[in-house]
Each structure stands twice: as structure tokens, then as C-alpha cells.
Hints:
Elements: E1 4-5, E2 11-13, E3 26-28, E4 48-50, H1 52-62, E5 69-71, E6 77-80, E7 84-90, E8 98-104, E9 107-111, E10 134-137, H2 151-163, E11 169-174, H3 180-190, E12 194-195, H4 198-206, E13 213-214, E14 222-226, H5 232-241, E15 244-249, E16 261-264, H6 272-282, E17 287-289, H7 324-333, E18 351-352, E19 409-410, H8 429-433, H9 437-443, H10 445-456
Parallel strand pairs: 2-3, 3-4, 4-5, 9-10, 10-17, 11-14, 11-15, 12-13, 12-14, 15-16
Antiparallel strand pairs: 1-2, 6-7, 7-8, 8-9, 18-19
Keywords: Chromosome, DNA damage, DNA repair, Exonuclease, Hydrolase, Nuclease, Nucleus, Telomere
GO molecular function, one term: beta-lactamase activity
Subcellular location: Chromosome, Telomere; Nucleus
Amino acid sequence: MSGTVIPGTPIAVDFWSVRRAGGARLFFLSHMHSDHTVGLSSTWNRPLYCSPLTARLLHRRLQVPTCWIRPLEVGQSHILGEEVTVTLLDSNHCPGSVMFLFEGTFGTILYTGDFRYTSTMQGEPVLRGRHIDRLYLDNTHCHPQRPLPSRQHATHQAAHIIRTHPRHQVVIGVYSLGKEMLLVDLAVEFSTWVVVSPWRLEQMRLLELPDVFTTEEGAGWIRAVDVAEIRWDTLVSWNMLHPTIAILPTGRPVKVTHPNIHPIPYSDHSSFSELCEFVKWLKPCSVIPIVKGGMCQAYFQEYLSSAPPALPDLRVLKPVQESVQQQSKRNRQGPKCLLKRAVWHSTPRGVVYESPEKYPEKSEEFRGVEVPQQIYCESAFCLTEGCSCHMGKEKGKEELSGEQPGVARAASTVSQAPVSDEHFPTGFAEQYLLTPLNVLKQNSSQKFDKLVNGWEK
């Protein structure tokens, strides 16, 4: 899953597991590719921010209720609450895809999502001369041994292959969204219709693309199919009916299974040289790869700004406002526990962190923190008999799911004796359990000492 909960902020981008989103309450969708919508469905029930075009696709394809979709105009700054300003920028990846520029007490963060850099991005007024504290970068092709031509050059390669096969029909493998302009350019170049399926034609009209698509078989000799159809057996069956070649536009290495399959290096992700040019121009304080497992930061060290980055604001985030009905229901039910795990185990107090040197690539990632969906007491010290957090101690052994190296794992032992509210202020329990002790000490030493003294009494 390509998604991130940004540490020190209330922001989650392309991340749709609410239980693992920690304190995130502002959810953003960069574009509609399936690897960025894992977990997003018709049951989604929180405000979701995206571009207007993505908003239309989102409701059509995933049936997310329109009451939760908040389209934001591209190129304009939007203030969300009192703490975050966001500006959407075209990411040149697929229809509706955007980058997010976040500003707040946490500093300035640019999240590229999937993007294909072009020099015209340097003309964006909101980016020119802007100090960027953290750059979340699409590192799909972040490798010096993986050069890519421009999309225009790749389109010329496709046209050349078609010209060298004048008696063949042409089948082009594409995903459900993306590479539409390749199809348009080839249709215009060869003055032919592009035959597509009915659902794809409906989408092309939704995207307001040029009228070069049709569902009528035989109306044109270029056909767009799902990329999964480009394989040995389909090529054999197509060529039994009529000489056919297949064009596979992709920036990734592929195994060719039939002599009539022609890959072309057409990619909607930035090449390595384009990434270097982008980072060199932007001069961020730090680069964080979006695709997990990549080792790309070393390539950009010489381009980083020497200015000190803004530190994440680790103050307790404001809770999401409850409706009147929710407040009434909560008051009737009495105290509930937000922390169900680790309260009955003899494990070290505080927070256990893995070494950042061991996993430098993952240190910025904040994943794997689950918020229980069942009813538990809000106090970390529940004394109510019959409460579900007292039953089935084996449930307390549940581990954090999806945890990544370098992510905090909360572990604590708690005395069963009553602890008064003066030693444990409401709303601070989860924050202090999930925040490094040295950062808490720096940001709020008096409050921290007060809590620690209260635990030790």
C-alpha cells in the first residue's frame, strides 16, 4: 500500500486504515490508482480531500458517499481548521493526480504522490523560493541505472513500431487509469479511432478527453485493452484472426513472451535524472521516499538545504469534534478505555524504539498504530468490574499489526491501584505513550515530570 501518516501532523495521505492512522484526522487522496486506494470503499465515513476530477472518479468507481468527499481546487490554497493550509498542484501522473503542499506549525511539507517531473513545475508560484522542510518523494524509478526517455519520445517510439507494421492491427495495454494521452496522440497521428470497452468509453467522457474513442468493433485499427491481456496466448489467438502487434507502455522491465509484443519506455513516474533535477531545484531540508524499501536519500544529499528544518509539533492534537449524538452516547456509557493492550503485562514502562541507524529508510514512517474499534474504557486505568478490558487477557497480548522498523511500540505496566485525574490528565495518555521520552521532556518538561511522578507514586 502506497500511503503515509505524516509524523507530527494530523495528516494522512493515501492511507485508509483508520485503526492504524494514530492521531490523523485529515485524509487526502492523491489519485485513483488502486495501490493508493487500498481500504477505501463505500463504507468510508470521514471527510476526504482530493482534486475535483478524482472526486468524480472516486464516487463512480468506489461508491464513496459524496457527503464525505471534499474536492479542493488545484492551484489554490485551502485552510483546513486552524492548523493546516494545503495547496494542490498537478502532479503530471494521471488524470486528477495532484501533489500536496502542507503548511502549519509542523513546518512546510511537499508530498508529491506519484508524479512525472517537468521543468514547467518550476513555474509554480507556490513552490518558487519556498523553504521545504520535508519532501515526500515518488522514488519509483530512483535508480541511476534505470534511465527513461520523455513521454513524448516514447510516443514517437510507439509510432515508429506501428509504421513498421502497416498491415497489422495494434493492441495497446493500459491500466484502468493513465496513459490516455498516448492513445489520443496515436489516434491523431494515424487518423483512426481507438476502440475501447463501454466502461472505458464512459470514463474517457468523464475525463473530457478528445473524441477519438469508440466502442464499435472495426471502426479503428488501434485498440486499448487491459494490460493483463497482453500475453502469449492472447497474441496467438489475435494473430489467428488477423496480423496483430501489441504495444506495452511501461517504465519497468518486462519479460516478453511473444515476438509481437513490443514494450516501450513510456512512464508516468519521474526518471532518475528528473528526480535529481527536481530535488536540486527545490532544495528541501530532507527527502523521504514514498515507496517503502528504497534507498534513495543518498543520491540527493548534495542537493539538500543547509537551513535547519522545522521540528514536528508534538503537542497533543485536538480531538475530532463529536456530534451531539456521539457525546450523549459516550456520556451514557461511562468511561471507556482507548488503550486495551499491554496494561496487564510486566513489560518496561514507556516507549520502546528500534534503532534509527538500523532502519534509516523507515525512520520517518508512522505506521502500525491501531486504535481499537471495540468498546473499552477511556482511562488507561479501568476499575469498572465487568468491563471488557478485564476479560480475556489473551486479547491484551495482541501485537501492533503492520508495524514497520523504526516505529514506536507502546509497552507499559500499570498498577491496579486507583490513580486520580490530577496525575493523569484526560487526553494525554495515548500521546505520552506514543511519543519519545526525550521529545516530551523538551516540549513540556513540567507536564512530563508531573505525569511521571504520578505513575511512580
